[in-house]
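pinging the channel bc i need a second pair of eyes. not urgent but kinda urgent?? the chain im working w is below, pasted from the shared doc
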Amino acid sequence: MAQKDDITTSLYETYESFKESALNKRRIKHTQIQPLIGLLKNDPRFTVTKVGTSIEGRDLALISIGSGPTDVFLWSQMHGNEPTATQAIFDILNFFKSDAFTSEKEEILNNLTIHFLPMLNPDGAEVFKRHNTLGIDINRDALRLQSPEGRTLKRVRDSLEADFGFNLHDQSTYYNAERTEKPATISYLAPAYDYEKEINESRGNAMKVIVFMNNIIQKYAPGQVGRYNDDFEPRAFGDNIQKWGTSTILIESGGYPNDIEKQEIRKLNYVSILSAIYTIAKENYKEISLSEYEKIPENDRKLFDLKILGATYHLLGKSYILDLGINQVEVDKEGNNDYWYSSRIIDQGDLSTYYGYETFNAEGYTIEPGKVYPEIMNSSAEALEKAAELLNSGYTYIRVKNIPSEALNSPLPLHQISLEYELPEFRLGINKNPTFLLRKDGELKYAVINGFLIDLGRDNNSLMFHWGSKNAMIYR
């Protein structure tokens, strides 16, 4: 454990030296990783092999380093919109390219041969979608092997007869560690290889490495680890790779507060995976008790981006107390390099068993609709200097004469509506856009605009600064 703490702390503290700066956003493309792979081809320490192509003809590369007898195989982004570990892989490759950690790397590379297959689904990554171009989930193609990407994964695993496999994914940011308000920042699974969920030596080794990694994550994200249900899925690659004799470790990157681009989670991937590789090389994972695996809390899915607690809502002449669960839903822009928000009410009522990344206690506050500002504006820029004033006066919509046809969203904390748009009657409901005001003791205190909570006590400069990269909607 002392050795684990030593290398883990050092890896965490020196991370910025190895972080691959060319990859700093979630929506990464195949073209961005090709120059990085190209550099490795010229480094004699690495072997880079083209092992297949995607349906649309994008190359799949296997990057190998080390000369040890134990083969460790890591593959990422079999779901195109799950890129966190792909970024971490290139951070890890930078670690092996560097002159640092000489003795640790020597021990790793003398005992292990490590193989990386980053971005297994580059066609899905191109459009930031889960499925491949055939429209299937590659992770459910282990039996039929209809996808060239799945066939490549199977062929590489079989050719290596890998001892350990790291199946690297992203999960929804709305997972939490069971019965806690903490997000499941990292979730693990040692997949079952049969319906009886038997534990042989191979699966047991995967469980032990997971316990080791959990102990690492607890240091930097305490309580923010979950464990997936291990029901056997006969179509899944993870379950089958476990069945084929590779100790398989599923890692899912979830959510972390104020980490929209998942860069802190990327760092945790880097630290925990490298530390796990080190313990595999030293074989000290074998000392870990299997019973510790079951102590990791199971994954649950009870998180919202914003939870409004106990607000008063008037409907048809009566008053009700409601909790609201709101998610800030991302919508990709053309080219799938960026996104905007179109938020939704996901649930309402008694949400006492749910949690929020942000929770606002609205007891004593009354929900009321926002108004349309009566003056017509030529552009949203006219409202820029008085957004706070308008919100404090109860206006949440501005009518704009010239809304550019290419505009997808309003950069202000005010919705823009066209001259012809008729605002519907205000009523809260599932899948509706969450926009309303919160009044207490006769005064407007807060606004919720497109699912984002705004303190109306801010001046305009402070309001716009905190609004930042958020957006309101455009209704034409």
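so The chain has two domains: 2-300, 327-475. and The first helix runs from residue 2 to 13. — does that match what u expected or am i reading it wrong
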